[in-house]
Design brief:
Function: Catalyzes the ATP-dependent phosphorylation of thiamine-monophosphate (TMP) to form thiamine-pyrophosphate (TPP), the active form of vitamin B1.
Helix content: 25-40%
Largest sheet: 7 strands, mixed
Number of strands: 13
CATH class of the largest domain: Alpha Beta
CATH superfamily of the largest domain: PurM-like C-terminal domain
Number of domains: 2
Pathway: Cofactor biosynthesis; thiamine diphosphate biosynthesis; thiamine diphosphate from thiamine phosphate: step 1/1
Distance between the termini: 38 Å
Structural class: alpha+beta
Number of helices: 10
Radius of gyration: 20 Å
GO molecular function: ATP binding; magnesium ion binding; thiamine-phosphate kinase activity
Protein name: Thiamine-monophosphate kinase
Shape: globular
Catalytic activity: thiamine phosphate + ATP = thiamine diphosphate + ADP
Order of helices and strands: HEEEHEHEEEHHHEHEHHEHEEE
Length: 322
């Protein structure tokens, strides 16, 4: 199968068609209309085989995950996703793999009303790059730089599942099949908190999604906002599968430093706390308060049931070991 046949078969004319797409797949570039009084929000993410996913990862899951991690970035900004472009590098045109990969991508795109408007296909090591675009009312974007002393720190859901799924697949932990299935589901089919992100536009002072680990991502907020934080590690939510599979000591690295969970980490001023639970609950999100903004810039004080807690692990960083 040649490049243009591949594009025509798996992308052109498939999925939803948005009215704001004036020119989609087929030309040198796409043309979209940004709604009045809105700003464009753009994010780009690359997934490389052997770095971000296992070689035997199901193609359908990979299609879902590749798009989900980009939608999670838009969610962290409070944006409404609208359009994506895809750069797909393939070793060869495997028809069965492409059927499953594109099915997974189209499913989540349709769920979030996102149209694939263009991209590129090339031959080489399996690499997936997605550029996701969304819109947000002018001046409403949630950034990493808005946290203030006294704000409360929240998580949108449990941490650690994706990390344990990865380490179990590497053979480093033995996990019972019924728990492993749930952990793998969290890694392979992450759920971007798109609706929650839009709710947080009027509530959160800062926000980020958990991709590199809780401490590493919290550090980004603290650095950009020039504040510190106290974190109650015993308050961090975890799943039943994680708790059943690991001792408390074994759980800390996954909960605090592993990443790949794509939950939202955000801060809320005192006067907005009362509105938070009611606003998010209608979307099935049970936000948990895990700490407070206070202290010197970039510092994180860890407490476990009120006692000082020491943890030296670090979040993931590309090129850190070179």
């Amino acid at each position: 199968m040649r490049e243009f046949e591949l594009i025509s078969r798996y992308f052109k004319g498939r999925g939803i068609t948005r009215k704001d797409v004036k020119l989609g797949i087929g030309d040198d570039a796409a043309v979209m209309t940004v709604p009045e009084n809105c700003q464009l929000v753009v994010t780009t993410d690359t997934l490389v085989e052997g770095v971000h996913f296992f070689k035997d990862m199901p193609a359908r899951a990979l299609g879902h995950r590749a798009l989900a991690v980009n939608l999670s970035d838009l969610a962290a900004m409070g944006a409404e996703p609208a359009w994506i472009s895809l750069a797909l590098t393939l070793p060869h045109a495997d028809i069965e793999w492409l059927e499953e990969f594109t099915a997974g991508m189209h499913e989540i795109a349709e769920y979030f009303n996102v149209q694939i408007v263009g991209g590129d296909t090339t031959q080489g090591p399996l690499t997936i790059t997605i550029c996701a675009k969304g819109t947000i009312p002018t001046g409403k974007a949630i950034t990493r730089s808005g946290a203030k002393n006294g704000d409360w720190i929240y998580l949108s859901g449990p941490l650690g599942d994706a990390g344990l799924a990865i380490e179990a697949q590497k053979g480093r932990f033995n996990v019972r099949p019924e728990h492993l299935a749930k952990l793998k589901q969290r890694f392979e089919y992450p759920s971007p908190r798109v609706a929650a992100g839009q709710v947080l536009r009027n509530l959160a002072s800062s926000c980020i999604d958990i991709s590199d680990g809780l401490l590493a991502d919290l550090k980004h907020i603290l650095t950009m906002s020039m504040v510190g934080a106290t974190l109650n590690v015993d308050k961090i939510p975890t799943s039943e599968s994680l708790r059943a599979s690991l001792t408390q000591e074994e759980r800390w690295p996954f909960v605090l430093a592993y990443g790949d969970d794509y939950e939202l980490l955000f801060t809320v001023p005192e006067d907005k706390k009362g509105m938070l639970d009611l606003s998010l609950r209608q979307y099935g999100v049970e936000a948990v308060c895990i700490g407070q903004i206070r202290g010197n810039e970039g510092t994180i004080e860890l407490l476990n049931k009120g006692e000082k807690f020491v943890f030296t692990g670090q979040g993931y960083q590309h090129f850190a070991e070179e």
